[in-house]
Amino acid sequence: MRCATGVRGKGGLTVLSGWIPKRRLDALRETLDARFHGRYWLDARVPSADELAEVPSLVRYPGWLKPYVPLVKSYGVPRYGEFDPALPFAFAYLLLFGAMFGDVGHGAAILLLSLGLARRLGRMVWIGVAAGAVSMLFGLFYGSVFGYENILSPLWLSPMHDPVRVLTIAVAFGVGFIVFTLLVNARNKWTSGRIGAALFDSTGLAGLAFYLGAVGVLASLAGAADVARPASLLAGLGIAGVAAFKWHEARAGLGERILVTLIETLEAAINLFSNTLSFMRVAAFSLNHVALALAVFTLAHGLDATGRGITLVLGNIVIIVLEGGIVAIQALRLMYYEGFSRFFSGDGREFVPLRITSQQTNG
Prior knowledge:
By secondary structure, this protein is mainly alpha-helical. A hairpin with a 2-residue loop joins β1 (2-9) and β2 (12-19). The protein has 13 helices and three strands.
């Protein structure tokens, strides 16, 4: 809420203009009354549509979510009224990390290492603790302990013995994630007053309709469902809406307008599916985890007892440090490039309250 305040004082009139959270407006009035006893004028109003880009964002997070905020802010600050991705980021990041690095022993090592480095890591230690815990959980799902798969029975599936299922689940998660980003993007466009883009752009509801329809067609071809006809209709209506919007938005001659519409519509369709296929790396890294463990076991198998023990210890350290770091980066990459880039502008300004302190001098 925008506020303009006039304060009568010695030497003339002072005018202050700025932004204040709506819930703090009554407290501001009480403060001004106590200080100036009615000798002020306060004008408060809701920002107009053309002022929204200037409005700072007041972002507050619960304590357990704050460790993830620096990772979100490294991409940017949400605009005023824009969807804040901190909560889904934390949930999806940990889920992806655990799925790609699921092992009870390796997860426990990450958890304990994070706690051991608590003073150096500060608040970020809780990301390591949570990542280790989720890795242990997926290790139980996969039945993996330091790469051994004959100690525990998997509660869900074994990536090594069922790679096709792992790949299918990874792609299905990617579909759900892309659908979520399209819905959020449509919401952001709608709240910012861009109704046409929210409804008909490739990252709006029309793009979502095309994407869901195309996924339904592919699922029907794979034999997973029998929805080919309604899915084809939905995809056709969606891509037609996107093409119409691109045509309307293009400002060029007839030939160039046709070319631009075709290229941008085709690009939108290709991007949706290339982004979805990026989630295949979740399955790839879960299989890679198994492959690295097998490589370590193979090297250790031909050695004597001492060499075998040293190889197993060093091999697991390499897996934890090298693959753990790569998986952490890949999960972050999926969040940034397949998620944030689709709906998060990141060019907002964080609200910083004005604080005035008075100093008294003697003499």
